[in-house]
């Protein structure tokens, strides 16, 4: 039960940070999302995001900051085997399933729902 509590708290805090960036910082949604992705990558590079995932589980893996961590982890793991070109290929390799799913589900939603406007 404690795991769910910390997942809720950590995920909620990440969302609070995003909401504060929008409301107080007056950042656009695109800027806010970019800041969270870059923050996840920086925390991953400093070795702090892995322990956060171990501690909070889905509370740290579901928010957008986890995408930045995934980009960093993919780039570094592929760079170890393929060198400098691995940085680019690793980013695409590790995130391709999630991006593909987003495109497919977005397309399916567009087929079944009519936008208002």
Automatic annotation (TrEMBL):
Transmembrane segments: 6-24, 36-64, 84-113
UniProt entry keywords in alphabetical sequence: Membrane, Transmembrane, Transmembrane helix
Keyword Membrane included in the entry's annotation: yes
UniProt keyword annotation of Protein biosynthesis present: no
InterPro entries in the record: Spore_V_AE, SpoVA
Name the UniProt record assigns to this protein: SpoVA protein
């Amino acid at each position: 039960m404690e795991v769910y509590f910390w997942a809720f708290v950590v995920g909620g805090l990440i969302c609070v940070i995003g909401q504060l960036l929008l409301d107080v910082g007056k950042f656009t949604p695109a800027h806010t999302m970019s800041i969270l992705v870059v923050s996840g990558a920086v925390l991953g590079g400093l070795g702090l995001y892995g322990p956060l995932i171990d501690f909070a589980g889905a509370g740290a893996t579901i928010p957008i900051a986890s995408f930045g961590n995934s980009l960093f982890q993919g780039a570094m793991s592929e760079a170890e085997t393929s060198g400098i070109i691995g940085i680019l290929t690793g980013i695409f390799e590790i995130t391709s399933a999630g991006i593909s799913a987003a495109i497919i589900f977005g397309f399916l939603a567009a087929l079944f729902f009519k936008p208002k406007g």
